[in-house]
Amino acid sequence: MTATLTAWSIRRYGAPEHLTPVSRPIPTPGPGEVLIRIRASAVSRADGMMRAGTPRFARLFLGLRRPRHDLVGTCLSGEIAATGPGVSRFAIGDEVFGLAGLKFGANASHICLSETDMLVPKPAALSFEEAAVMCDGPLTSLNFLREVAKLRAGEKVLILGASGSLGSAAVQIATAMGADVTGTCSARNADMVAALGAGRVIDYAQEDFTRQAERYDVIYDTLGVSSFAKAKGSLTRSGRYVCPVLGLGLLGAMLRTSVAGTRKARFSATGMLKPDVLRPMLGTLVEMVEDGKLVPFIDRVYPLADLIEAHRHMETGHKRGNVVVV
Ligand SMILES: NC(=O)c1ccc[n+]([C@@H]2O[C@H](COP(=O)([O-])OP(=O)(O)OC[C@H]3O[C@@H](n4cnc5c(N)ncnc54)[C@H](OP(=O)(O)O)[C@@H]3O)[C@@H](O)[C@H]2O)c1
């Protein structure tokens, strides 16, 4: 009897209910490939957008009329179950985490990836659940704070959406980088954001940061809840507004500020960066984990069989940190 893997498929863009469980033969790793037995995988906002096919311009990469790859899930952790010919970086039994990215298929029991994909050894300090989300919030926020915003020690940073996946990682990373951190969140999450390292917490339902006198070197709008135009007055003269949610407003602000003005608006698509660029960033994050400066915040853990429920919770827009399936 052929051994089978369990995965989740999406044949047309839409709501969580469009997700369907599927069984397929477990693939044999080819030259340079490893077979991973997945222990945990993330259910991120990006996964939700890929499932729904939004924003529509993303379909240029995902497939115009229907998803080009029918399996879902992008970030994972697990153990190497088999290695293909010529594999030198990994051996059977190694614990790893990484990014399937646009290969998809991380919300599954097994996956084959190339050893040169974004795959690195899992540090003992991380559980499989924590390791599974490292390539979502932590990797994106390190990219935005260090590479895109060029945040420096001693600078003031405002993190909008500090209780989400990107935000909860950003608070810890900015603190580890020696920045002076303020985060926005609701009252129910204020203790969590302060415990992650924020020196000051703004309740977004009660206070509007744009009406306050404080000026920031960096405003990291993790959710796209503000805009460069609104945030500009709260930036220092050389301040940077960085946002991972691309829209026409942000695109226009990036174009305008690239040619004029001292305050800048910037975006990056972290998952589209090459493994050679991302791997050293994961190295930095692993060091932060091992130094006790970063622990991914896990909100809920669901069995893989409940992926639809996990997507529904993620889509409320009110998760705290990360959602994982095991
Ligand atoms: N460009 C890239 O490289 C990249 C990479 C990864 C993700 N992304 C994108 O980044 C975005 C953020 O994802 P995420 O996973 O961090 O989000 P998330 O975890 O779903 O954010 C949820 C959190 O945001 C809080 N929140 C809601 N409205 C708020 C507001 N107005 N002000 C402050 N906090 C608010 C919620 O708290 P309450 O419940 O208290 O309201 C909740 O804790 C997504 O759009 C995703 O697609 C981009």
Briefly note the CATH topology name of the largest domain: Quinone Oxidoreductase, Chain A, domain 1
CATH architecture of the largest domain: Alpha-Beta Complex
Task: Characterize the largest beta sheet: strand count, sense, and whether it forms a barrel.
Answer: 7 strands, mixed
Helix-strand topology string:
EEEHHEEEEHHEHEHEEHEHEHEHE
Q: Rough shape?
A: globular
Brief characterization of the structure:
The strands form three sheets. Strands 3, 4, 5, 6, 7, 14 and 15 form a seven-stranded mixed β-sheet that branches. The protein has a six-stranded parallel β-sheet with strand order 10-9-8-11-12-13. Strands 1-2 form a two-stranded antiparallel ribbon. It has 326 residues and is an alpha/beta fold.
Give a description of the structure:
The mean pLDDT is 96. The protein folds into 2 domains: 161 residues, Medium-chain alcohol dehydrogenases, catalytic domain (Quinone Oxidoreductase, Chain A, domain 1, Alpha-Beta Complex), CATH 3.90.180.10; 135 residues, 3-Layer(aba) Sandwich (Rossmann fold), CATH 3.40.50. It is an alpha/beta fold and 326 residues long. The strands form 3 sheets. Strands 3, 4, 5, 6, 7, 14 and 15 form a 7-stranded mixed sheet that branches. A 6-stranded parallel sheet has the order 10-9-8-11-12-13. Helices cover 27% and strands 26% of the residues. The protein is globular. The site of NADP nicotinamide-adenine-dinucleotide phosphate has 33 residues, from helix 1, helix 4, helix 5 and strand 9.
